């Protein structure tokens, strides 16, 4: 993280001070910060800003877990209501609340008169840009979207993971220097995302990270079904290598039966999955088809070699959609129940 900057002497009060109230804070001084939402992200970023020398003066969190995080990551920072935090955060108000709650929180703070001209109101949502902050902008506050591309646990271990991560930032042009400074103070690198591109940006991250967790756990469950006692030991080196290769080589990292067009192997996979874990058939099909498409586009699988494979995937998908025993020996829950009747 960047070294803390020395604060300037307090400015004299009076008309000159009031005239500067509508301008955002400069990049050359420490900030007075408030955090609304003491979840995993908010508490961690609040602690990181404190470590960078900024002054977190208040935080809002209502659950027992939030209180515990505040005590652990922001000891000594008073817990207050959201409106009190907003009023105390004279320079930067950090909103780290769930995506679907963000618009309501912003509107409520604006209606309560808790926001002020020149105050930077930043949210940590990946899905939203600046539009969700319109009620704050309408009263003179400055909008900023600042999303850390990282998964959090809400423990001190998170602070060590912040170095070098990217932040998806959307900001007005005149606020970009401050946004870049905040990201630097957090130890990160800014990625400037256009307002219209925020949903696509967030979809990419959710698809890559959230769905990866599901995929890994699915693989672990199927290994347990196959009698493997410690699937994590089997998967760890394989998945680490696959991820590193994918990030380094792109589609050239593809291996396995789909990339080779091994229709018979894939058919046997689907037959056994249908018998053991039918809920895994549809996701396997979707990923196998997308893998085949990418392998063909990358030149790793010739269209002629893919024909049998694509036929297996299409027949199985039709069987799943119809709820009947179709495709390569696929037995859906409906067909198994019918056969047992």
TrEMBL record:
Putative oxidoreductase/dehydrogenase Rossmann-like domain span: 30-148
- Write down a Pfam family by its short name: DUF2520
The record, for InterPro entries, names: 6-PGluconate_DH-like_C_sf, DUF2520, NAD(P)-bd_dom_sf, OxRdtase/DH_put_Rossmann_dom, TM1727-like_C_sf
Segments forming domain DUF2520: 167-291
Q: Where are the transmembrane segments?
A: none
Where are the residues of the annotated region Disordered?
A: 1-25, 322-341
Per the record, where are the segments of Pro residues compositional bias? 1-12
Biased composition annotated in UniProt, kind: Low complexity: 15-25
Please state what the protein is called.
Predicted oxidoreductase, contains short-chain dehydrogenase (SDR) and DUF2520 domains
Which organism is this protein's natural source?
Answer: Micromonospora nigra
Lineage, uppermost ranks: Bacteria, Bacillati, Actinomycetota, Actinomycetes, Micromonosporales
